[in-house]
Amino acid sequence: xxxxxxxxxDRIGSSAKAKERALAQLRAKPPVDPAVAEQRAAKAAAREAxxxxxxxxxxxxxxxxxxxxxxAERAAAEAKANAPNLARDLKAARDARYAARxxxx
Length: 105
Prior knowledge:
Blueprint: H1 8-28, H2 34-82, H3 86-104
């Protein structure tokens, strides 16, 4: 078998026949029933609504987590501000002892 066996014209002809068969199959395909198309559209809309609801729930969950984190950070900062400053208290006690010693002299 060589490149000349099916000639170029034969290959073009078989290609054209294959295209015609494909087009005939496409034409023979029954049209989409409007009721079926409507069902498909309804299913797609329901799927999209479920996805939107899921996205909204996820967003609300993320916002709640962020709010909780911010509240925890605020509480930690407040606790740190209200906690006794050990170094400050020690210095005050030392200064009081020093002042008392000076007062005795």
